[in-house]
Amino acid sequence: MSVAIKDNQVHVWQVNLKTIPADATKFTGTLSPDELERAGKLKFQRDREHFILSHSQLRLILSKYCHCLPGELSFRYNSCKKPLISNTEFGELKFNMSHSDDLMLVGLCKCNEIGIDVEKVREVDELENIANENFSDQEIKYLMDSSDKTNTFFKIWTRKEAFIKAIGKGIHFPLKSFCVEFKSPGSLEHLVILHHPSWPDQWRTSDLKVSDGYVASLAINSDKFKISYFQL
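Structure (tokenized):
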């Protein structure tokens, strides 16, 4: 099945890794030697299986847009290990992947940079200390005023993680150096990334609709986009 994506569209795929047959070795044929080497370096079998399953499913999703076999895709990585499609004919397709526990999300769009993050909601030890180290003053106030601090913590965290994944900086970009705004005037869905002088104002973050017990967000350098959801 082929899937087309238009300008200003964002496609979000949800994959429950528990529904995929447990024998992860059957999916290794679609992975590159580099991916297999990275999987082999993981200490625990569950982590190795998750890596193989998630990367094989990512290839399967991308192949629907690139009209090729999953194993024909190749990737390159920036200095912070953000993956990009290296096949020149598919270069305009941007994507990002995230998974937590058994839930995997893939976000795709054309041309615009995109980041995605999902977290299983759980109790966090020293939640306020972590927030003080990573959140802006505005975000901390929003968290402290919330009646559900755990859920609000992950709501903020996933937006910030999605943004640094979108710009391809990963752990090298301080979470405390920028702020996500939760009460953007005139906008109920798209939330502005504020207070960072190095990045332009068109960056937006948005909640994502995911399975119960999880919180997810995306970030994209566009102020006009529509999200569509798919399930693998």
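The radius of gyration is 18 Å. The chain is about 30% helix and 25% strand.
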